[in-house]
Hints:
By secondary structure, the chain is an alpha/beta fold. 24% of the residues lie in helices and 17% in strands. The chain contains eleven helices and 16 strands. The strands form four sheets. It has an eight-stranded mixed sheet, sandwiched between helices. It has a four-stranded antiparallel sheet with strand order 13-14-15-16, with helices on one face. The longest helix has 23 residues, at 243-265. It starts with a strand and ends in a 16-residue tail after the last helix.
Amino acid sequence: MNTPNLVLILIDDLGWRDLGCTGSDFYETPHIDALAAQGVRFTDAYAASSVCSPSRASMLTGKHPTRVGITDWIGGHGVGALADVPYLHALPENEYSVARALRDAGYRTWHVGKWHLGDGRSAPTRHGFDLNIGGSHVGHPPSYFSPYGLSGLADGPDGEYLTDRLTDEAIALIESADERPFFLNLWHYAVHTPIQSPPALIDKYEAKLNGRDVAGDIVEGEEMTAWHLRGRRVRRRIAQSDTGYAAMIENLDDNIGRLMDALRRTGKADDTIIVFTSDNGGLSTAEGSPTCNLPLREGKGWIHDGGTRVPLIVVDPRVEGSGRTSDAITSTPDIYPTLLELAGLDALPAQHIDGTSLARVVRDEPGHVAPPVYWHYPHYANQGGKPTVAVRHGALKLVRDLETGVQRLFDIAADPGETTDLAASGPDSVAELAAGLDAWLLDVGAILPRRNPYPAPFAD
C-alpha cells in the first residue's frame, strides 16, 4: 500500500454494547464483528460528547467540541435550575477539517449521510468535501423509507430504505474511484430515531424473543429536571429487547457487509484503512429507550459511560496480528490525527489539535500515552441528563454536577457501572482530578451555566 484510501464510518446513537463483538446477545452483527476481527477494537473509546453535533464537530476538527464552540446538538435548548449557555449552531468555515487536510494532500473527498453541522456556508462542501450526498442541517430523517424528505438526497422508489440507499451511494463512489486515494466519510443516519426498519427483520426478532414478556424491560425512574420535560420521567431500558431497533442494527450490519464486499470486489480492500465508531452512547433512558447499555450507567444525553463510551474499530490492512483488542483510553478528537498519521501526513504547524494519534496502538507498537479525557456538557438533555463536566484519567473518573456542585469519583476499571462513589475515601484523587478539570475548562474557554434567577414561566 502506498497512499491508503480512508473510510470513516460513523453510526448515529450506536451503543457500546450494541454489537456482537462488544457483548450483545440479542442484536446480530456478523459483518461488523468480522470487521473487528481484521483490526483492533478499542474497549475504552469515548465520544467527545453525549449528543451528536459536538462529537461530529470534534471528529472533523481534531479539537474538543468546547474549543470549537459547539457544545449541544444543533437546535437543542433547555433550562431548569440553571440557565442555558450559548453555543454555535454551525461548524465555523475557518476550521481546517480533516477533509480539507486530506484534499490538500491529493485525496478525493466524499461525504455521504448525516451532517447536522449546518447548511450553506457550513455545508460539507465548504469544509473540504468534493461531494455531499444527503448531508444537511437536520439531525434525523423524517422517514427511513422513501420519500425521505431530506435535502441533498433525491427520493428513491417508494419504500426504498435509507440505510440501503446511502450504502448504494457509497459503493457507487468506490466503484468510480481512479488512481487517486479517496476519503469516504460515511455517516449513517441509523440507528437514530425514528425506529423504523424492514418488517421482515422485525418478525425475525419477534420470533427470537420466543414469547418472552418484555413489559418489565423498561423501568420508570425519577422526574426529569429540565423545564420543558417537567412531568416526564426517565424510563430506563434494562434489557436489549426492542425488535425494531434490533432490526435496524441488523440492516445496518448487512450494509457494512455490502460496503466491505465492494472494497474487495474492486480490489481496494488491501489499500483501504477503515475506522468504525459512533457519535455518542445508545439511547436508553427516553424517547422510547430502544437499547440498553448495561453494565454501563445511563445512555445518550448523560456524561456517565453509557452516554459516552462507544464502539471503535480501526482496520489497517498493512498491520499483522489482526483481531486485537486495546484498553487504551481514547476519545473522538483522536481520530483526526490518527487518520493523518496512518495516511503518512503531518498536521500543519499552526493547526491546533486536541487529539492524540492512535497509530502506535493500531500498529501494535509501544509508546502510546493516553492523556486524560474531558467532557463539558453545560446543557439539559432531552434524555434526562443535566449540565455536567467530567474527566477520566487512567481508571478514575470524576463527575461534577453543575446544578449542585457535587463531585463523584468512580473507578471505571473496577466499577464500569459507576455505582460506587469513592469521593469520601479518595479526597486526594478528587482534588487532583478536579484541579486538572478546572485548568482544562479554562484552557478550552468553557462557558458554565449560571443559576437561573427566575421560576418556570408556565405550569404543566
